[in-house]
Amino acid sequence: MEVGRNTGGRGGGDARQWDEESYRRSILIERELSSRIVFRTAFAPSVNPNPEIVLVAASDGSLSAYSIASCIASCPRPMLCSKETDQKVAPVVLSAGPLCSIQAHKGPTYDLKLDGNDEDALLLSCGDDGYIRVWKWAEVHMAAVQGSHKGEKLRPILELVNPQKERPWGALSPIPENNAIAVDKEDGSIFSAAGDSCAYCWDMETGKKKIVFKGHSDYLHSVTVRKSNNQIITGSEDGTARVWDCRSGRCAHVIDPQKSFKLKESTWISSVALDNSGSWLVCGTGRGLSAWNLISYECIFSFDSHSPIQDLLFHDNQILAVGSEPVLRCFNINGKILSQVHCAPFSAFSISVHPSGVKAVAGYGGLVDIISEFGSHLCIFC
């Protein structure tokens, strides 16, 4: 009979040394890890034409940097489908440790952005605690290169927090969360999509709030800057996208993607993205996506996936979209599907693209799937 562990030589049925508290704690940790979500990724600035570091914002409030080369070298080539049977199979997933990690927020970190393309760049994040925090990328990069725990000691150079609403009897509302941020590099402004149905414009130099954009009837999921027209565009749980004038703070136009779908079900706007010219807008909704011409404000096409689209972007005049299905879809501007790539997270919340064409798809389970410009999976790490 096998001798039980930590039983002092007694039989395996002796439970007198059983540590119930440690067992319970291990189960909770395992569940927390399995339900962790990556809400946003971004490729770090580099002089190398190939991506070196991917930044990850996760539901545990962390902001972490991972070496792509190390993950590729450590992980066997993952296969998400069998060529013989064309059936989905379990991918090979690497449990990877970050080069460095910052505890950026109390509660989930929902978004991150990089302002700049060199060592002088700034790293911005926002989260459930209602804060926007800004770090010097050079300091984060140094901690990542050294592979130490110095990232834990880094302090932001700027902190912005959403205002609280005054309630009766002098009470204050909870601080509304920030679900997304956007940066106007030329103007030095930060825009945030908040949980109190408002968007905010902050001055990056002074840290002061400049404009409040009011008009949505429910909380905001996304915000993007339309530089050519001095506008921002927001997407909301109320089912509309709104175009705002940054000079006056007024709503210039309301876009209702629900009108482009045959089924008149109530839905939400999960994400919005603009092409480089600022003439084309694509909206991700609770049912699919729709593309709009911002000159005529006409819907060019709509795609009904019967499931939420949770993130999208323009790349080389094409639209990349991910959502609650484990599929990365690529559309042309006329709505034709150019490719569909099966990806590791069965619910994806983030798609980001490096100038080389390498993509990062991330989402539920803490999974990050690095996909080459040709659609092959370079590595999948957790």
Describe the structure.
It contains three helices and 28 strands. With 382 residues, it is mainly beta. Strands 1-2-3-4 form a four-stranded antiparallel β-sheet. A four-stranded antiparallel β-sheet has the order 5-6-7-8.
In short:
The protein is mostly beta strands.
Strand content: 35-45%
Q: Please tally the β strands and state the result.
A: 28
Return the average pLDDT rounded to an integer.
88
Give the proportion of residues in helices: under 10%
> What is the quaternary state of this protein?
single chain
Spatial gap, N to C terminus: 38 Å
Q: Radius of gyration over alpha carbons?
A: 22 Å
Question: Which consecutive residue ranges, at least 5 long each, have pLDDT under 50?
Answer: 1-11, 82-86
The main β sheet shows up as: 4 strands, antiparallel
SS content category: mainly beta
The total count of helices amounts to 3
Assign an overall shape: globular
Looking across the biggest beta sheet, what order are the strands in? 1-2-3-4
